[in-house]
Amino acid sequence: MKNIKQYYKHLGRLVYYIAAADGHVQSEERSKLKEFVMKELASHENSSDSSGMNQAFYVNFEFDESISHHTNLNEGLAAFNKFIADNSEPGDEALLARSLSTMETVANAYTKKKEFDIIDVIKDKIKEVNFAIKKS
Hints:
single chain; mainly alpha; 6 helices
């Protein structure tokens, strides 16, 4: 993925939108996200920022920042879709799959219907991006 730090920031905002789809971010959602980032994203991410921190932790930072600013859902969805369309590279399929798992983990932590409607939109975009990656 080109610019992995920005990718994780976009993912953090998107996970916030999923968690907030029912109107509130629940403590269960926040807890599941932090656990998933530690166990699944950070363990597969080899890059770190200038301070030496694993870049996957930007998901948590952006999630918390989005809670503070009540970021708009539609803007975040469009921004994530555009980012992955513009920045995905061959070999990103596993990262995108882990990202979907992140979203599903948070969605399963509390209510599900609205959250999974958002995830379905993302799945369609990821399928499109994966198809484009395979063609290149």
